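Please fill in the sequence for the structure shown.

STRUCTURE ENCODING:
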């Protein structure tokens, strides 16, 4: 049963030492009761309290890791229904289906699609995270051969082995022993054997049932076989069912602390029409899926799904920002121009991209304005003449360039006088308002 904040408070050290990031133990206890923090944040909690609070402090959606090493994907650990309450924590894994009835050429092309899917968007690496191996043939030998091939061609890619046939499961999970694979396909009929196979391969178990009642009793049964890490599939076929089942599961886990449904959810979005598939996958991304199986990996579709996933899993209360420093674009010399803007990620990536397009090597001074864009930072008093002057002086750029000219964004032309007043010997040039005018601006200045 969930403990209240006051019950949790009684078990904490009550020293108000603030090491957890909260001003008092009571404030921390209240957050813990809402499952918005982890008990680990208090370094002084006693072992006895840990044991008592174990259940209360466990995330309502169990943490499960798919894959190992740099490509490992963490799932679960969510604590809220809506992201304006708190950031959604772990973005869902996208897994491309490979069938054991696919020809060798198709298998290789799909593996390549996964390996080539990686893109960098506003400083984050986005990719198709995993492959889902499908035992369409029903033949354990054929399924085992596909698994061997995938393990050999893409040893670092996370794998979900999908079959209800226990012989096929046994054959195909072996190459991924100890690599945090997921064995998907445990049902009421095969649960005990699948639990045994997953346990010996150190794999999490994907559990499948028709409807939430059947799913709840199946996860309880599998838990009694010693399997803790599960991924659950409520059998959602249509987009409507994905929306309904996923929402019900998340509500039950978070609002009711209903442990039998407190696991990451897997949904299947494969459709013959790629556009339709992207819509179904998009609904699963927006509504609580932790793994989404897709049937194809067209680049346009990847981009749409990656962007949606990144946006849903970005904290709306914390602007995305890049590090404050002087960035070198191209191979600038002491005569190269120096531009300045704020550290809002989108601003940085757009401005640096346009400077790159200009082919004019330049220095780009990125100033910490808490991730605000230029006009917002200016209006908030974070991008002012004196703050810009201080940053330029402290950055050391004066030792790297021969000139004393600073190009500022056109939107804050009003700052030019204030900067020149504070930055003795410098000339301020007003650049264009929009970044897409930068290439022409820089080329004409360089001519
Ligand atoms: Fe209290 Fe622990 Fe937080 Fe210190 S770190 S204030 S003891 S909850």
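FILLED IN BY: designer on duty
SEQUENCE:
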């Amino acid at each position: 049963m969930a403990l209240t904040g006051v019950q949790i408070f009684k078990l904490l050290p009550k020293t108000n030492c603030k090491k957890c990031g909260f001003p008092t133990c009571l404030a921390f206890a209240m957050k813990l009761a809402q499952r918005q923090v982890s008990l680990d944040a208090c370094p002084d909690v006693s072992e006895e309290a840990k044991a008592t609070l174990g259940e209360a402090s466990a995330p309502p959606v169990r943490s499960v890791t798919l894959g190992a090493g740099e490509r490992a994907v963490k799932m679960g650990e969510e604590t809220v229904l809506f992201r304006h309450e708190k950031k959604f924590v772990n973005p869902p894994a996208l897994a491309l289906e490979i069938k054991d009835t696919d020809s060798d050429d198709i298998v290789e092309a799909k593996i390549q699609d996964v390996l080539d899917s990686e893109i960098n968007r506003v400083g984050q690496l986005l990719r198709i995270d995993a492959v889902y191996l499908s035992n369409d043939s029903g033949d354990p030998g054929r399924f085992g051969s596909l698994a061997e091939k995938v393990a050999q061609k893409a040893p670092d890619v996370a794998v979900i082995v999908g079959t209800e046939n226990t012989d096929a499961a046994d054959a195909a999970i072996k190459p991924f022993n100890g690599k945090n694979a997921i064995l998907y396909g445990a049902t009421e009929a095969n649960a005990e054997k699948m639990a045994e196979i997953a346990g010996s391969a150190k794999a999490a178990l994907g559990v499948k049932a028709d409807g939430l009642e059947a799913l709840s009793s199946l996860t309880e049964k599998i838990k009694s076989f010693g399997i803790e890490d599960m991924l659950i599939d409520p059998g959602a076929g249509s987009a409507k069912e994905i929306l309904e089942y996923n929402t019900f599961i998340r509500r039950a886990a978070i609002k009711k602390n209903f442990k039998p449904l407190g696991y990451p959810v897997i949904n299947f979005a494969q459709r013959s029409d790629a556009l339709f598939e992207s819509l179904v996958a998009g609904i699963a991304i927006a509504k609580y899926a932790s793994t989404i199986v897709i049937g194809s990996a067209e680049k346009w579709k990847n981009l749409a799904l990656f962007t949606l996933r990144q946006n849903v899993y970005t904290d709306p209360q914390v602007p995305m920002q890049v590090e404050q420093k002087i960035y070198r674009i191209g191979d600038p010399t002491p005569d190269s121009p120096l531009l300045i803007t704020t550290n809002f990620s989108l601003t940085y990536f757009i401005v640096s991209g346009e400077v790159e397009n200009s082919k004019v090597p330049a220095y780009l001074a990125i100033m910490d304005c808490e991730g605000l864009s230029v006009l917002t930072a200016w209006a908030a008093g974070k991008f002012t003449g004196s703050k810009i002057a201080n940053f330029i002086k402290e950055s050391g750029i004066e030792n790297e360039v021969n000139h004393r000219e600073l190009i500022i964004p056109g939107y804050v032309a009003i700052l030019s006088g204030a900067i020149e007043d504070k930055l003795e010997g410098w000339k301020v040039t007003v650049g264009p308002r929009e970044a897409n005018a930068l290439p022409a601006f820089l080329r004409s200045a360089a001519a």
